[in-house]
């Protein structure tokens, strides 16, 4: 299984998509002789699907086609060399994956055929068991359906612990702590901007373009920051490097 789970899509507004992960992603594409990818853009609300595909083509140097052009989306996944899942709104994305009957085809493609999955922001959220730790608003009246479950632990992308002066609402730490208080057997991995988890076979690696760590939230345990994925031993069934 090959997963790239990125907190966000780019380091700055004027940089290329997936810029901070280019070395790792392009290395994989070259080693697998991957020349094309299917983009799942359903999370996008304020952006154009085809424009995002063109951006990714230029950034990655491969052909990228948006799945919304496919007559039968499941067949597009069956024929895909690589799956790209864009950021945006996680609620919209997860509901569309169910409505388009793509949950099982993606699971089979990734787990059984080893098709690489590259997801950022919302695309990272839906790779976990559920989208309950998303930062997004439920813009559609959808129940909290199960997500893809490719990665066994909840993730909170775009994590920040910056204290905003004058803000009287709950912090991100407050919200994630509340999640763990209600769901005492579950953990949440908080990924800062410019960071990602890379799962390749049985190996789990963490990378941060800014040299920052990730946090792990779990009920009854002190929340700490780590840079070594060995901190996740016991949470994920992978050999951590």
Automatic annotation (TrEMBL):
Top EC group: hydrolase
Entry keyword set: Dipeptidase, Hydrolase, Protease, Serine protease
EC numbers for this chain: 3.4.13.21
Protein's GO biological process: proteolysis
The keyword Transmembrane belongs to this UniProt entry's keyword annotation: no
An example molecular function term from Gene Ontology annotations: serine-type peptidase activity
A Pfam family hit: Peptidase_S51
Presence of the UniProt keyword Hydrolase in the record: yes
Coiled coil: none
InterPro entries named among the record's database cross-references: Class_I_gatase-like, Peptidase_S51
Gene3D superfamilies: 3.40.50.880
Similarity comment: family membership: Belongs to the peptidase S51 family.
Protein name: Dipeptidase PepE
Organism of this sequence: Rouxiella aceris
């Amino acid at each position: 299984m090959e997963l790239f789970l990125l907190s966000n899509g780019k380091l700055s507004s004027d940089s290329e998509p997936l810029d901070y992960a280019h070395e790792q992603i392009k290395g994989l594409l070259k080693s697998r002789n991957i020349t094309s990818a299917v983009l799942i853009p359903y999370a996008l609300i304020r952006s154009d699907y085809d424009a995002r595909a063109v951006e990714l083509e230029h950034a990655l140097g491969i052909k990228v086609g948006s799945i919304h052009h496919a007559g039968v989306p499941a067949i597009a996944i069956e024929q895909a060399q690589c799956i790209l899942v864009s950021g945006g709104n996680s609620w919209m994305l997860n509901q569309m994956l169910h409505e388009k009957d793509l949950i099982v085809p993606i699971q089979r493609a990734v787990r059984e055929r080893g098709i690489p999955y590259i997801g950022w922001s919302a695309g990272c959220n839906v790779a976990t068991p559920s989208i309950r730790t998303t930062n997004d608003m439920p813009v559609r009246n959808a129940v909290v359906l199960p997500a893809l479950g490719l990665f066994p632990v909840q993730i909170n992308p775009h994590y920040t612990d910056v204290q905003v002066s004058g803000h009287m609402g709950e912090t991100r730490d407050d919200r994630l702590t509340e999640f763990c208080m209600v769901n005492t057997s579950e953990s949440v991995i908080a990924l800062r901007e410019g960071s990602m988890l890379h799962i390749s076979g049985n190996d789990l690696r963490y990378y941060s373009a800014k040299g920052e760590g990730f946090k792990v939230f779990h009920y009854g345990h002190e929340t700490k920051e780590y840079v070594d994925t060995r901190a996740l031993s016991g949470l994920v069934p992978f050999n951590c490097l």
